[in-house]
Amino acid sequence: MATATVEAPAAVRPAAQPGSPLTRARRRLYLPFVLPALAVYLLVFIVPSLFTVVLSFAKWAGAGPIEWVGLANYRRLWYDEVFHSSLVNTLLILVGVGFLTFLFSFGLTMVLREMAGRKFARAVIFFPNAVSALAISILWGFLFQADGLVNALLRLAGVDTVPRWLADDNLFYVICLGLVWVNTGFYTTILMAAVDRIPAYLYEAADLEGASSWQKFRNVTLPLMWDAVAVSATLWAISAIKIFEFIYVFAGAAGSVPTTKAWTLSLYAYAEAFQPTGEARYGASAAATMVTLVLIVVLTLLTRRVTRRESLEY
User: Fold this and answer.
1) By C-alpha distance, which of 233, 165, 226, 163 is closest to 194?
2) What are phi and psi of 114, to 5 degrees?
3) Could you give the CA distance from residue 31 to residue 41 in angstroms, rounded to a whole number?
């Protein structure tokens, strides 16, 4: 007669009870670890942010009493043409520079995916991000000055009348080209990291089906790297609104801000706070900063909403 054998259940490690000594010890260690970081966060971020919100409704020159003016600073922004042009320039960087940056990033990702020595090429492309933005902007200025490398190459090519790259009418477009060059390597590196995780057999199956390069990109690469694309789009939406040092160093003369035709929202806020005449308008600067903050929040939420898709497993 067969005898049934019943296996004893595996021993389960008892969980710590809410009132156990281990739980109480963990709770005692929680606050000493969290409070220092929380205090720094409050002092460095939360308190200045709240002060900026209050200051945007006031008039203050950096010293003396703070005068409450209500919505006067925001009304001034509404009618200020320089602020309008700064906002337009910011949106042009966000959309135009962003489009070209991701276009080149996707193209380089596809080229480098099957290229021998792609790790070295990736390091070269990423190089502008490893160097200080101040140094890169100074280098960009040397390239496009009247006797710079760009004009020298144009003269060698037979162009007698070279463009005035650093003139007020052309300055902003040269800045946009520089931003494309600086940021393309960064986002190419992010996208390449996502592409490296895609199994090679998926591309082999696509080759057997006779798929073209565009079909492999649209049906294999893009869906499987979409999470990285969504993160990159969010990072760009945030960073594009805050671009400051590249434009300030490249376009500004010694001790002065650039021409208003090259201003963005960040430069506008800086110029309001540190006027060349010495008359600081911290209230107007705070109001411009709050508009920038709202724009960042809205664009971040919108970008996350547009790029939201179900993640694919492979």
Assistant:
1) 226
2) -110, 15
3) 15
In this structure, are 83 and 45 located in the same domain?
A: no
Q: Which residues of 232-267 are buried (b: 16+ CB within 10 A; e: fewer)?
A: bbbbbbebbbebeebbbbbbeeeeebbebbbbbbbb
Six-digit token pair at 239? 């960073």
Q: Are 301 and 230 in contact (CB under 8 A)?
A: no
Strands (E) in 177-290, as ranges, are none
**Is residue 93 assigned to a domain?**
yes
Q: Identify the domain containing residue 184 by its residue range.
A: 74-306
pTM: 0.80
User: Among all chains, which residue has been given the structure tokens 């160093």?
Assistant: 249
CB atoms within 10 A of CB 128: 19
In a domain, residue 67? The reply is no
Contacts of 226 (CB under 8 A, 6+ apart): 307, 309, 311, 312
Tens of each residue's pLDDT in the chain, 314 residues: 445 454 544 554 554 455 567 677 777 777 788 888 889 989 988 898 898 888 889 888 777 788 888 888 899 889 989 999 999 999 999 999 999 999 999 988 888 877 777 777 777 788 777 787 778 888 887 888 777 788 788 888 877 777 787 777 888 888 899 899 889 989 998 988 888 888 888 888 888 888 888 888 888 888 888 888 889 999 999 889 888 888 888 776 555 777 888 889 999 888 888 876 667 788 888 899 999 889 888 988 888 888 777 666 65
